[in-house]
Specification:
Layout (H helix, E strand, L loop, with lengths): L3 H21 L6 H4 L21 H11 L3 E4 L3 E2 L1 E7 L4 E2 L2 H11 L1 E3 L4 E10 L2 E6 L14 E2 L2 E2 L10 E6 L9 H7 L4 E2 L5 H6 L4 H8 L9 H8 L4 E6 L8 E7 L6 E7 L2 E8 L6 E3 L58 E4 L5 E4 L7
Parallel strand pairs: 3-10
Antiparallel strand pairs: 1-6, 1-11, 2-5, 3-4, 6-7, 7-10, 8-9, 12-13, 13-14, 14-15, 15-16, 17-18
Amino acid sequence: MVSRTHRWALIAGFLVLSIGPLKSQVFVVGEKSATDGLATDFTPTDVPLPTSTLSERGRRELVRNLEAEQGFAHRALPMGAGLTLQANGAISPGAAEYRQMIYQKGQSAGPGDRVIITAMTIKGDRIVFDLNGGPYAKHRFLSHISLNDNPVAQPGEQPTGARVTLVFKGAVPEISAPEVKALLEPVIDFGVKSSEQAYADTLPAPLKSAIAAHEVLVGMNHRMVLAALGAPESKIREQESGDPNGARYEEWIYGHVPQTVRFIRFVGDRVTVVEIAAMGKQVEIHDKDEMGGYQDPTLTREIALGDRKPTGEEGTPAAPPTLRQPGEAAPPTDMNRVQFPTTNQPTVSKGGSPTTDPSAPHLQ
């Protein structure tokens, strides 16, 4: 029988042996591996700036229009106050120092993450923007007071925000909020995209280029056309060739004479015909598929295990399940119905002769 002391000695020895291999598996991620794929490309802006100095009214307008504004990070933003952007100029630090800053301090926001201007300061030749709470925690006087070695105020959360400083040549000019947003474009995108624009960004490059050029291709759906041309000026719903059994279509009309007029015909959710009528030119008619084999994923359905394809004709649902054998006739629908009693029903009297009792029940 093993004593209690010997038993604890065995357990301690087992723990020591098990910890040893764990230490040998520890590895350190270097700066090169941690920042692999980090985008450092930069394109300076070219925004015309006024020559007059920022007035007090302009300062108030900037604070009112920029504080609490939301945007999306164009590049990874490091925690801390390290990014300095020259108006229409370069950004510092450079690529190597920028990667080192990200590696040492971590990211406050990744590319495409939403950021909020939580505070801004205008002084001298620069505008300082604190993003997502800023890089420094707010100082609290109560944090220096303790009772019986217990702090009165509990320490708050560690700051995880970033700071971007926009520097001008000379004093801050009489600049507007949209111009400041344009100068911050290499770092933050303040543009608000509609659902159609966001949808267009998910499409393949040829379709995205066509939408950017405001072109409609045969085969596009409603959302693609809205992203390319916006809402139509008028709509017409008709039937093919006057045939009562023909397919119904909807035609969207863009423009009016003497402008170029576009007629976009939809059958269902797909463009089938595009007619372009320009002044002094022959009408262009496009009726062949121009999507290059692209299939809208929203129109497809993945067949899961156990699914069955419809057995009916195209466009009609399959017959509902039944217990009847193939060829077996359906049961008659006119079943025997319950006959309710009438008001005058014959009954039998004590003497055996029939009488009429209105309240007597009778079933046929």
